[in-house]
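My hope is that you will study the protein record below before we discuss the fold together.
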Amino acid sequence: MRLLYSDILIPLDQAPIQMGMLVVSESGKIEEIVSPNSENYSLENAQYYAGALIPGFVNAHCHLELSHLKNKVSRHTQLDGFVEELMSVRSASQEEISSSMKAAEEELFTKGCVAVGDISNGSASFQIKQGSKIQFHTFIERFGLSADVASRSFESGISLLNSLQELNLNGSLSPHAPYSVSDKLIDMIIEHCLDNHSIMTIHHQESHSENDLFQSGQGPMLERFQRMGISASGFNAKGKSSASWLADRIHTNQKIMLVHNTFSNREDVQAIHVKTKNAYFCLCPKANLYISNALPNLNMLLEEECELIIGTDSLASNDSLDMLDELRTIQNAFPSISSPDLFRWACLNGAKAMGMENNLGSFSIGKTPGIVNISNFNAKEMLILPESEARIV
């Protein structure tokens, strides 16, 4: 049995507790939470952690496969420039790709991630996930703007998903983005996710040019397709935003994770909410700043009562996979948001999104959520400081 206490214990299923103590089994299961006014409270044999103790992070959006691209793609090029440059430098030896993924996986765990929603286009990351202390949900990502390739893209995704599941790893199919899949392909993926009761993720409104393409069939994204030799002949202007198009296609109460939302407006969010109450809006603030030097309209998302979750995106668009850095970035831009709310998005909400809330996300009795120490945390004012650091304990 382990006894751990801190200046502030943040269970996330109840109010923070000053000098709260955790009683944890050897397997990591939460046995008891003890407050200083309890008769059972004793510091004898207890280990002190300065700062805060929180449950393990649930990183809702990552790309392990791109870990070898750290510092290789320019900043502030906007999405279309970022994608073009990424594709030009993506090639690397299998040894470099594998070693970079392993280092990234180790960073994720050391910095407090106990679960990760990871995007995979192939099987390169499967072996690392099989031996990891992290619980991964792998989103098998599909592309195909032409309806002619929809069946082939879908079937190759099913083959990858079967390979993943044969390794006893969890996953589901997902479309890359509204602008990179045909109506036929996304409908096939939607039906598969519904039939298998699995969550679907999609990159969403990461660029103004996405809505330009959907509204008029023109703009920088179409020009990028042409430069890259991608045929968009099967794409027809929708006369509506990509969010409205997506809302028309998903089913009532479909579980979906919308990632980035950098340029989503109120009407976009409302269109999604009319269709499903199981939408999660994933924020990857450092990647948004890296690519577009912009952040989502977080105040609007809160006003619309969006279920918010947090991701790090990839090392192609970030200098670390540190979830605390993401929360610090949000706090700096939106100082009115409390750190318990930020931790809730990064832990409990992420667990709910990926169906892991029965075991992760909070210090509820009986869960094994992992324990993270936030050192140099301002427990009095509940602030993440520039020098705050997260580590698994």
